[in-house]
């Protein structure tokens, strides 16, 4: 069972307990021979998918571990030498690299935090089913599908200080007096980067939470209302606990995705002005594929991977506590 | 009376805020589409021109390349890559999902979690070795070099979505077929495939969407023979001081198919993006 609330009709007929037991342990696999067969069948069926996944995760990681101990430049591959931990020492010593780690964390926290806050508000408004809400929810889907690179290009031109709509209309309604070169100052560049991500992905959070809210049965709310709970108390004590699995999955998936951001920031600010919006993905990419210092980039990549593998399992654990998505 | 008035005011404010958000969210798309139809002189005016005779000149220029690299081949490359990556991903994903949903084998639980955890793997980390390897093998700028990574990116999503929809198929049907002497592949092909069709459609359309939109691998691994549309459009800015007409026409041709697909799929988009967890 995953998060969806109404169980399919056949489940009532069969009885979910019985069916679940059957789908987990197949009667045919009881004998040792049958079990062997099932192992071969199972691994045979997953093997092609697993091989492709290995090729794009474990193989690159192993290669990068190896490369990270070497001074390896793609332009002069024959001169590569073993340098031990030098590449990692440089990461610790270089303030720019520490900066881009911090920029990454700040970007993820700000973007996901704001998307969650706005998404929750939108979901609360949209949860009541009406034609108006359906239209609004449908329009909200559009930004999610837009090619990220295209949305970054659109942002650039909307924020253009000479011809951009943003500057023109903000001045028109009196919110601004002078044109602002958004992308040439750190603070406004950050506003641009965050607003782009918020525009594109708030609907994702909103629609997940909306599905969650619509699935909450009316009884607990009614019971609490009878007991006199209203407004915020009703929300925090009754509705939010029921919504928690949906919150967990929305935040987890958004966080994973935000850590992978590359194209939008590359096109919108290029990491600038200076290095003020340079997230780690841009740093790794440039070190490896523009400076061709594969060794240094590999050490950075491995460090990033280590940080992620500390953060993500914690989040998965929180998710597992709140939903049964991750259970067998 | 005053209580009712307060409630009414609150509801009205909420509606206004909702539609304000929706309206603001539409601005970038409105800018993109309207600018793409504006005649050359009107694209970059201040104040913005709202009344104009729509023209297709920018689409013609962009697609045939009167002003730069022709865009039509790039769209074709994107389409080929997205279609092939989706078909291969679905084929590999369906068998894997079937095994994870129906077969008891050692290491299954670990495997399911491991597949899910590959979602966290940053693409920028895998692109470096892939670039070096592809360079050594002479596979830069080939379809296959782009398709295999895209299959890998989409597999966790495909497998988890399909696993959850296969679990909703009553097992009795499959058991009956097995008893009647059908092989496992026949069961997957003849029974699971048609019954899991909605899940397959969700996973397939999402794979298409994600592959069509991908930028990092396409930027690194293609030059011209298979250069995709997102890479092509990202080169528009520097090259000619950003002509809005060409830029927005190109952008619209990339975005229109995926946005339409998302609208058709809207009910299932969230289900797919949450790996089948939210229906």
Helix content of chain A: over 70%
CATH class of chain B: Mainly Alpha
CATH first level of the largest domain in chain A: which class? Mainly Alpha
N-to-C CA distance of chain B? 41 Å
The string of secondary-structure elements of chain B, in order, is: HHHHHHHHHHHHHH
Distance between the termini of chain A: 10 Å
- Assigned CATH superfamily of chain B: MetI-like
* Order of SSEs of chain A: HHHHEEHHHHHHHHHHH
Neighbour order of strands in the largest sheet of chain A: 1-2
Total strand segments of chain A: 2
Q: Strand percentage of chain B, roughly?
A: under 5%
Mean pLDDT of chain B: 89
Structural class of chain A: mainly alpha
- Let me know the largest β-sheet of chain A: 2 strands, antiparallel
Number of helical segments of chain A? 15
Report on this structure.
The complex is a heterodimer of chains A (328) and B (279). By secondary structure, chain A is an all-alpha fold. Chain A folds into two domains: 1-56, no CATH class; 94-292, MetI-like (MetI-like fold, Orthogonal Bundle), CATH 1.10.3720. Chain A has helices at 9-14, 16-24, 32-56, 58-68, 86-93, 95-126, 131-145, 148-158, 165-172, 186-215, 218-226, 231-258, 263-268, 280-289, 294-322; strands at residues 70-71, 81-82. In chain A, strands 1-2 form a two-stranded antiparallel sheet. In chain A, helix 6 crosses helix 12. The N and C termini of chain A lie close together (10 Å). By secondary structure, chain B is an all-alpha fold. Chain B has one domain (64-273): MetI-like (MetI-like fold), CATH 1.10.3720.10. Helix content of chain B is 74%, strand content 0%. The longest helix of chain B has 36 residues, at 2-37. The two termini of chain B are 41 Å apart. At the A-B interface, helix 2, helix 3, helix 4, helix 6 and helix 7 of A face helix 1, helix 3, helix 4, helix 5 and helix 6 of B.
């Amino acid at each position: 069972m995953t998060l969806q609330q109404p169980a399919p009709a056949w489940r009532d007929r069969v009885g979910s307990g019985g069916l679940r037991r059957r789908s987990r342990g197949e009667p045919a696999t009881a004998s040792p021979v049958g079990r062997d067969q099932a192992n071969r069948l199972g691994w045979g069926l997953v093997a092609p998918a697993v091989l492709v996944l290995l090729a794009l995760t474990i193989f690159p990681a192993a290669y990068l571990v190896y490369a990270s101990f070497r001074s390896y430049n793609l332009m002069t591959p024959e001169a590569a030498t073993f340098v031990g931990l030098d590449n990692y020492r440089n990461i610790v010593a270089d303030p720019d690299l520490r900066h881009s780690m911090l920029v990454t964390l700040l970007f993820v926290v700000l973007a996901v935090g704001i998307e969650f806050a706005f998404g929750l508000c939108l979901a609360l408004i949209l949860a009541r089913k009406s034609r108006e809400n359906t239209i609004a929810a449908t329009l909200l889907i559009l930004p999610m599908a837009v090619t990220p690179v295209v949305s970054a290009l659109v942002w650039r031109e909307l924020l253009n200080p000479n011809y951009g709509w943003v500057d023109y209309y903000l001045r028109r309604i009196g919110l601004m007096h002078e044109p602002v070169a958004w992308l040439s100052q750190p603070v406004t560049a950050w506003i641009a980067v965050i607003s782009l991500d918020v525009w594109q992905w708030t609907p994702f959070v909103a629609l997940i939470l909306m599905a969650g809210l619509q699935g909450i049965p009316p009884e607990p709310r009614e019971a609490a209302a009878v007991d006199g709970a209203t407004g915020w108390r009703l929300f925090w004590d009754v509705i939010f606990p029921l919504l928690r699995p949906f919150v967990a999955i929305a935040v987890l998936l958004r966080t994973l995705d935000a850590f992978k951001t590359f194209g939008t920031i590359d096109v919108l600010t290029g990491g600038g002005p200076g290095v003020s919006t340079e997230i780690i993905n841009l740093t790794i990419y440039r070190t490896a594929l523009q400076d061709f210092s594969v060794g240094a980039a590999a050490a950075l990549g491995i460090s990033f991977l280590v940080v992620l593998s500390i953060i993500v399992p914690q989040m998965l654990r929180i998710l597992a506590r709140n939903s049964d998505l991750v259970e067998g | 009376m005053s209580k009712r008035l307060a409630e009414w005011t609150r509801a009205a404010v909420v509606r206004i805020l909702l539609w304000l958000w929706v309206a603001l969210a539409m601005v970038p798309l409105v800018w993109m589409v309207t600018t793409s139809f504006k005649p050359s002189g009107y694209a970059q005016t201040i104040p913005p021109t709202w009344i104009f005779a729509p023209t297709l000149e920018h689409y013609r220029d962009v697609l045939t390349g009167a002003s730069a690299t022709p865009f039509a081949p790039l769209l074709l490359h994107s389409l080929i890559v997205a279609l092939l990556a989706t078909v291969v991903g679905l084929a590999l994903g369906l068998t894997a999902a079937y095994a994870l949903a129906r077969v008891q084998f050692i290491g299954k639980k670990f495997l399911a979690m491991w597949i899910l955890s590959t979602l966290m793997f940053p693409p920028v980390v895998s692109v470096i070795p892939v670039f070096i390897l592809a360079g050594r093998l002479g596979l830069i700028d080939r379809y296959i070099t782009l398709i295999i990574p895209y299959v890998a990116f989409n597999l966790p999503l495909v497998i988890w979505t399909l696993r959850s929809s296969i679990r909703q198929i009553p097992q009795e049907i499959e058991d009956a077929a097995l008893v009647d002497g059908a092989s496992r592949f026949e069961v997957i092909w003849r029974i699971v495939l048609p019954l899991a069709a909605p899940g397959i459609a969700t996973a397939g359309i999402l794979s298409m969407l994600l592959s069509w939109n991908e930028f990092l691998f396409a930027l690194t691994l293609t030059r011209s023979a298979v250069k995709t549309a997102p890479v092509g459009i990202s080169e528009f800015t520097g090259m000619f001081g950003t002509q809005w007409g060409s830029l927005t026409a190109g952008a619209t041709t990339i975005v229109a198919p995926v946005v339409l697909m998302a609208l058709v799929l809207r009910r299932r988009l969230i289900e797919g993006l949450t790996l089948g967890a939210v229906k």
